Amino acid sequence: MAHIKFLDETCRDGQQSLWGMRMQAGQAYPVLPTIDQTGYSTISLAGSSLFEVLVRHCQEDPWAGFDLMMSQIKNTPVRGGIRSNGSVTFGFTPQVLMDLWMERLCIHGVRSWWIYDVLFNIDKMTRLAKLSKKYDCKVAATMLFTLSPVHDDAFWADKADKLSAIPEVDSLLLYDTGGVLDRDRIKTLVPAIVANARGKPVEMHSNNMLGQSAKAYCDAVEFGVTVLHTAARSMANGPSIPSIDIMAKNMETLGHTHDIDMSKLHPVSEHFRKVAKTAGYLHDQHYEYDVTSLTTQIPGGMMGTLRNQLIQQNMLDMLPVVLDEVAAVRRELGYPGMATPFAQLVGTLAVLNIVTGKRYGAIPDEVIQYAAGYYGEPPAPIDPEVMDRIAAAPRAKEIFGNPPPEPTLEDLKRQHGTDDEDELILRALVPATDIDKMRAAGPLKRDYPTISSPEMEQVRRLMKVANTPFVQIKSAELDLVMRR
């Protein structure tokens, strides 16, 4: 039997998968002390895309919000996430800006990192792992799992060996964005990783897209995983990850031990349920087993993006065709792992192929950069015919001949007109007009009313159907007037 540690993803992947990264600091602020006292080994909290969404869609200063949340966490290390060669954008971010992003989050309190690179540029992952040690951070080197003919046990064993050999790496993270891992795959995969982990702990993160991730966690623990990523029940499952409630119970039932105080779980889950209902966000999700997911392996957040792209073209009925095209494009591009940025690149290219009616007739710059090797070496060779079409694209010659620039920090400060390094990160990653709107929206909100009652449910339904200029509702508990 083993002692199992739990990492909390409620305010990072949970809200990313269910709320589209729109969780504002005040929505989490009241229960963060409870999460901090629950017994998690780590709390995952920060990612560059979360910062972008807060600025662009919520008009909230992400640095102020992060500091507010950090003020509520006194005992548990907080984790940030970083892609080795990109921040926010699906293209490239200069190396100096990647380093600055890590350093600034460390200065704001992060003491744990998950570092990933879908194509495993080990040198870049190593550079960031070394940088984090300036602040005594723990590092989880991440293997973003995907199913394909080239991603066999030998492939993953080799990556585990290379990553665990980095002295600054403290654990290996097996990250299954599509939730496709089952017992048959786990029983050989996890032992192969554990055998090459050099005694370092192996973590697991599995988005519950097929409804089988809780079972996968149980199987993975049997074969050597000792750290599981979970979320509060109301923020778990569906495109999110399994709940801490069921996984702590499962571990106890299987005879394992853990540090979770089960009495803390319900109030946290209930808080986020009320926030979600008030804000109109998803909560308490459950997905059925869909075999399509095994071929497309589209992460939960990306499925929403595909739907929105098709809705804009009034072609939502074409979603099944697009999903088939996603599988074909992924195969032709050499089976890149379906995580940022490649899930987005493959998905967008598939939509373009269907919407335009001409396969590879319109090719985004990032796909050309991928073919040029700027992201690293594809897992398998790109289909020769597709490579010819990419090379013939109007922008191909320019992109192939001009690798992304690598400015210095001083160059970036001059370019964006600021010496404030927190501000520099925002200006480098988010359009100035969005930052201006954020500043104009006023100071950070510390609390958000969570209104949940039968009467308010009636109001919500009425707001969707009422087309008169004046509506009044009266009950023993509520007196409400709405005017257009």
What is the topology?
Blueprint: E1 5-8, H1 10-19, H2 25-28, H3 32-36, E2 42-46, H4 48-58, H5 62-70, E3 78-83, H6 95-107, E4 112-116, H7 122-132, E5 138-144, H8 153-164, E6 171-176, H9 183-195, E7 202-206, H10 213-222, E8 227-230, H11 244-253, H12 265-279, H13 292-296, H14 300-312, H15 319-332, H16 342-356, H17 365-371, H18 384-391, H19 396-400, H20 409-416, H21 421-429, H22 432-440, H23 454-465, E9 470-474, E10 479-483
Parallel strand pairs: 1-2, 1-8, 2-3, 3-4, 4-5, 5-6, 6-7, 7-8
Antiparallel strand pairs: 9-10
Helix pairs in contact: 4-22, 6-21, 8-9, 9-10, 14-16, 15-16
Write structural notes for this entry.
The chain has 484 residues and is an alpha/beta fold. 47% of the residues lie in helices and 11% in strands. It has an eight-stranded parallel barrel, surrounded by seven helices. The chain has a two-stranded antiparallel ribbon with strand order 9-10. α8 runs parallel beside α9 (183-195) and α14 (300-312) packs parallel to α16.
Summary keywords:
alpha/beta; 8-stranded parallel β-barrel; two-stranded antiparallel sheet; 23 helices; 484 residues; single chain; 47% helix
Concise overview:
The protein is of the alpha/beta class and 484 residues long.
State the low-pLDDT regions, or none: none
Please tell me the overall pLDDT: 91
Beta-strand content bin? 5-15%
Large-scale geometry: globular
Report the biggest beta sheet as strand number plus sense, adding barrel if it closes.
8 strands, parallel, barrel
Q: Number of helix segments?
A: 23
The rounded distance between the terminal residues' Cα atoms is: 62 Å
Q: Give the proportion of residues in helices.
A: 40-55%
Gyration radius from CA atoms, angstroms: 23 Å
Order of the strands making up the biggest sheet: 1-2-3-4-5-6-7-8
User: What is the tally of beta strands?
Assistant: 10
Summing up helix and strand content along with how strands pair, one would put the structural category as: alpha/beta
